[in-house]
């Protein structure tokens, strides 16, 4: 991750602009618009220093325990062990780390994991061949192609090749299409957005009738997160790099899902007192005190948010671990479905 992403400033109260994406579209440096003293006064006004930390790490652990029990019940009663195949193309450091974590997570719950590591200069056809092999392998119940793929590959061709019954990432257009339609059910819901909603559920945050704002419109997080919130009867807005008044819209949100990939972009002053914040961002920022030389921060300025919001997910330890737990859950769902195991 650190190798591929530039570093931004690490502290919320930096005098530098906190937004690069939004700065392009004419929103000025946040420090000019909202001083840190303004932020402090908002916090004092609401007198809420008791915002809850939404502990994704421990919820993910709880879910992994539930999955472990189900995997062993399935193995004992029908002799089937769920299997997940992960295809990694190239040697991006962050991708390799994620894939390693997914493999460890599989082992921890008793799911079989298969891994294909293909060189950066592989052809699209070679990747498609691996997918075809896993599509036909009955011991594989889920197939995940780690993104991003090398730039010479057509992501759409590759994601379309994954059998929809094994599309545990939920990225197949038919799964996304069903997610978008009322009265239809996708076979799989994308892991990161599913993890966000699961956190809201497990923390008893009601979604129905609430104003939700999703920041970012990516295929893998923002868009499906907005669809899921809408399915839960929230009134949903999507804020993106071309939104003319992002802060104004974000300030109306009872629930914020931030998924832009900009360190500390969302400031305390953008947050409605009492809002619930799910921070999907995982951004490396320089940190000389860390042995790695960097640390991870979210898209939301945590120190500011925690004083104003009623609940916030930390980074790390928030959405990240949930993403992996949902991947395991989707793999289990897939295996149960093909084997008609309730
Ligand atoms: N086909 C595909 N499916 C994915 O689900 C997918 C992907 N491609 N490409 C990249 C993103 C990113 N992603 C993460 C998963 C777990 C953590 C995670 O567990 N993070 C930990 C700590 C991470 C650390 O310390 O390095 C945390 O936030 O606490 C992060 C990021 C899945 N992704």
TrEMBL record:
Q: Report the top EC class in one word.
A: oxidoreductase
Q: What EC identifiers does the entry list?
A: 1.5.1.5
Q: Which reaction does it catalyse?
A: (6R)-5,10-methenyltetrahydrofolate + H2O = (6R)-10-formyltetrahydrofolate + H(+); (6R)-5,10-methylene-5,6,7,8-tetrahydrofolate + NADP(+) = (6R)-5,10-methenyltetrahydrofolate + NADPH
Pathway(s) of this molecule: One-carbon metabolism; tetrahydrofolate interconversion
Q: Which GO terms describe its biological process?
A: photorespiration; tetrahydrofolate interconversion
An example of a GO molecular function for this protein is: methylenetetrahydrofolate dehydrogenase (NADP+) activity
| Gene Ontology CC | cytosol
Q: Which family does it belong to?
A: Belongs to the tetrahydrofolate dehydrogenase/cyclohydrolase family.
Q: How does it assemble?
A: Homodimer.
Q: What does this protein do?
A: Catalyzes the oxidation of 5,10-methylenetetrahydrofolate to 5,10-methenyltetrahydrofolate and then the hydrolysis of 5,10-methenyltetrahydrofolate to 10-formyltetrahydrofolate.
| Official protein name in the record | Bifunctional protein FolD 4, chloroplastic
Which species does the entry assign this protein to? Glycine soja
The record lists the lineage as: Eukaryota, Viridiplantae, Streptophyta, Embryophyta, Tracheophyta
């Amino acid at each position: 991750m650190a190798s591929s992403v530039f570093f931004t400033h690490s502290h919320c109260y930096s005098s530098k602009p906190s937004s690069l994406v939004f700065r392009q579209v004419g929103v000025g440096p946040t420090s000019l618009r909202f001083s840190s003293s303004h932020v402090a006064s908002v916090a004092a006004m609401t007198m809420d220093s008791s915002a809850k930390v939404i502990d994704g790490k421990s919820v993910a652990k709880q879910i992994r325990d539930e999955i472990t029990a189900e995997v062993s019940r399935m193995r004992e009663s029908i002799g089937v062990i769920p299997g997940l195949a992960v295809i990694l193309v190239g040697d991006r450091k962050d991708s390799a780390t994620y894939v390693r974590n997914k493999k460890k997570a599989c082992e921890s719950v008793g799911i079989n994991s298969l891994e294909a590591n293909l060189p950066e200069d592989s052809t699209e056809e070679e990747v498609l061949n691996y997918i075809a092999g896993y599509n036909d392998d009955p011991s594989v119940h889920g197939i995940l192609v780690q993104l991003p793929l090398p730039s010479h590959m057509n992501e759409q061709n590759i994601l379309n090749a994954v059998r929809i019954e094994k599309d545990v990432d939920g990225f197949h257009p038919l799964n996304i299409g069903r997610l978008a339609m009322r009265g239809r059910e996708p076979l799989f819901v994308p892991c990161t957005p599913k993890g966000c909603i699961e956190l809201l559920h497990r923390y008893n945050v009601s979604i129905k009738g609430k104003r939700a704002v999703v920041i970012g419109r990516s295929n893998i997080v923002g868009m499906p997160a907005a669809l899921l919130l809408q399915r839960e009867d929230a009134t949903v807005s999507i804020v993106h790099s071309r939104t003319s008044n992002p802060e104004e819209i974000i300030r109306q949100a009872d629930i914020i899902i931030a998924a832009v990939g900009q360190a500390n972009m969302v400031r305390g002053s953008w947050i409605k007192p009492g809002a619930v914040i799910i921070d999907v961002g995982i951004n490396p920022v320089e940190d000389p005190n860390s042995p790695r030389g960097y640390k991870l921060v979210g898209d939301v300025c945590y120190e500011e948010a925690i004083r104003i919001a009623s609940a916030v997910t930390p980074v790390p330890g928030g959405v990240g671990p949930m993403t992996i737990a949902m991947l395991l859950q989707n793999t289990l769902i897939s295996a149960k479905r093909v084997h008609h195991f309730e």
